[in-house]
RNA sequence: GUGGAUGUAGCUCAGCUGGUCAGAGCACCAGAUUGUGGCUCUGGGGGUCGUGGGUUCGAGUCCCAUCAUCCACCCCA
């Protein structure tokens, strides 16, 4: 049996890898414009980190983690998301004791054992940012503005930003009570999933897509109405900051993020038309996280973007047609191949992207190859050239040919590439 | 995890009710009078028809299982 990639994983080959480079470049540049710097953490961590940092009741921890025991029987887990690792690193290196806020970005593979489909993989890639050590609503606004700026730079205009506040533990507890007493009488009408949610995390019943559940809980109390003054004020300031900076959003009472450590601001970005998995990113404030992981009581805000989903949204866009290399060295007679190799090396050492044939193609075949690589110029080397110490440079677009001495070749090529 | 669809050359797909059904287009390679590309023409390589069983005289074509992909649910990136 042929060995294939494991379920939910895939290879990224050229030319697709070029699209990744493009995406990565935009993400990096934009984050750096906003003053974030890159952090790289291990791809696996102690299982406990995610259990504590993400929350035992979440789908991620309860059923989606790639957990394994290493040879010393340590329980390790392939990271399902990036925030917990950042919090761990922040604490481990006491990064919070320096200049605040600590502003980091990361990108890389994440792992979740879930049913694969378009836009959802078991090994997928996220880009995320985290800002630790600020409680300011302007900090919340900054990460959202950054997120929107990234979409803008990627040319993605057709998105929806959903925004809500899930309050602090205090107001959420009050809300939870209200919600439970509202649902209790109709509990039996809910779908089995929601019955389970009712026990574990009643807030999750709200965003159940099931019609029957929706009908059953009709008229349910809204979280916003239970926010304490402080949380309400914070949310108002975030909204004002967004409006002041021309970021449009949709207030969404039903937006309840699945991760336990979120407080106050929660947001999610959807791009319609990329399949069922339309959420390209989401995030929010998580004031309880660092402390829950054993660090000081400092807050944080951040978001994560799904890179596969961004690429999916980008797919309609421009196709990069740049040549793979700029120059192709073709030998008209195999006996001069060694000279061709020397010329090729000279070109490359001068920083000129160049290649040659290595399959013994005929002169014609070599020209075809050159054409397929999309080179600007071909260097032809045959008997005439060798005997008279020059090479023929063919402009593949204008078809003009030039006789150039070896000494002037590099300069000639460089000038010609620019033109 | 639940339900449904699909799985034939590198890619996109034909192949009706089981018996020249192993094909096309694209891609790749080689030629079209011998030192040169993009068009056209000709030829060529390449597939245990996802995998494993079963039914049958005979199975891409029927049945079962399994793996994978896709869709819906769930959830999120």
Structure report:
This protein has helices spanning 16-33, 47-53, 59-63, 83-92, 137-153, 169-183, 192-200, 211-216, 223-226, 229-244, 289-292, 307-314, 337-349, 363-373, 383-387, 406-418, and strands at 37-38, 44-46, 66-69, 75-78, 102-111, 123-132, 160-165, 250-251, 263-270, 279-285, 300-306, 327-331, 354-356, 377-381, 390-395, 401-405. The longest helix is centred in the first third of the chain and has 18 residues, at 16-33. The mean pLDDT is 90. The chain is of the alpha+beta class and 419 residues long. The chain has 16 helices and 16 strands. Helices cover 38% and strands 21% of the residues. The strands form 3 sheets. An 8-stranded mixed sheet has the order 1-5-6-11-10-9-7-8, sandwiched between helices. The chain has a 5-stranded mixed sheet with strand order 13-12-14-15-16, with helices on both faces. A 3-stranded antiparallel sheet has the order 2-4-3. A hairpin with a 5-residue loop joins strand 3 (66-69) and strand 4 (75-78). The protein has 2 domains: 16-168 and 228-314, Bira Bifunctional Protein, Domain 2 (BirA Bifunctional Protein, domain 2), CATH 3.30.930.10; 327-418, 3-Layer(aba) Sandwich (Rossmann fold). The protein binds one RNA strand of 77 nucleotides through helix 3, strand 6, strand 10, strand 11 and helix 12. Residues 1-316 form the Aminoacyl-transfer RNA synthetases class-II family profile domain. This is Histidine--tRNA ligase. L-histidine binds at residues 81-83, 112, 126, 130, 257, 261-262. It is found in: Cytoplasm.
């Amino acid at each position: 049996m042929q060995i294939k990639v494991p379920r939910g994983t895939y290879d990224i080959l050229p030319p697709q890898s070029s699209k990744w480079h493009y995406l990565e470049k935009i993400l990096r540049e934009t984050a750096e414009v906003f003053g974030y710097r890159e952090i790289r953490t291990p791809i696996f961590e102690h299982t406990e980190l995610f259990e504590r940092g993400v929350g035992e009741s979440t789908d991620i921890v309860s059923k989606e983690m790639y957990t394994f025991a290493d040879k010393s029987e340590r329980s390790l887990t392939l990271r399902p998301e990036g925030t917990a690792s950042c919090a761990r690193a922040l604490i481990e290196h006491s990064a919070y004791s320096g200049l605040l806020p600590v502003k980091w970005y990361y990108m890389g593979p994440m792992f979740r054992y879930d049913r694969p489909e378009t836009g959802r993989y078991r090994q997928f890639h996220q880009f995320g940012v985290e800002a630790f050590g600020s409680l300011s609503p302007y900090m919340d606004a900054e990460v959202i503005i950054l997120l929107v700026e990234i979409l803008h730079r990627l040319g993605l205009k057709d998105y929806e930003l959903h925004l809500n506040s899930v309050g602090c533990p205090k107001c959420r507890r009050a809300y939870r009570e209200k919600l439970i007493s509202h649902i209790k009488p109709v509990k039996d009408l809910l779908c089995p999933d929601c019955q389970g949610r009712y026990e574990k995390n009643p807030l999750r019943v709200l965003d159940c897509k099931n019609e029957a559940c929706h009908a059953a809980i009709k008229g349910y109390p809204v979280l916003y109405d239970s926010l304490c003054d402080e949380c309400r004020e914070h949310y108002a300031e975030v909204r004002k900051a967004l409006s002041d900076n021309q970021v449009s959003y949709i207030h969404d009472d039903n937006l309840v993020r699945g991760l336990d450590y979120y407080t106050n601001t929660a947001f999610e970005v959807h791009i319609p038309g990329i399949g069922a998995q339309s959420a390209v990113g989401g995030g929010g404030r998580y004031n309880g996280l660092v402390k829950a992981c054993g660090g000081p009581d400092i807050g944080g805000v951040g978001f994560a973007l799904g890179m596969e989903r961004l690429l999916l949204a980008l797919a309609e866009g421009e196709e990069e047609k740049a040549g793979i290399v700029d120059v192709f060295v073709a030998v008209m007679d195999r006996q001069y191949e060694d000279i061709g190799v020397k010329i090729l090396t000279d070109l490359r050492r001068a920083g000129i992207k160049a290649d040659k044939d290595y399959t013994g193609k005929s002169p014609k075949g070599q020209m075809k190859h050159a054409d397929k690589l999309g080179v600007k110029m071909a260097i032809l080397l045959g008997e005439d050239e060798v005997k008279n110490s020059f090479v023929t440079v063919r402009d593949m677009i204008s078809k003009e040919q030039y006789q150039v001495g070896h000494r002037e070749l590099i300069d000639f090529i460089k000038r010609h590439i620019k033109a």
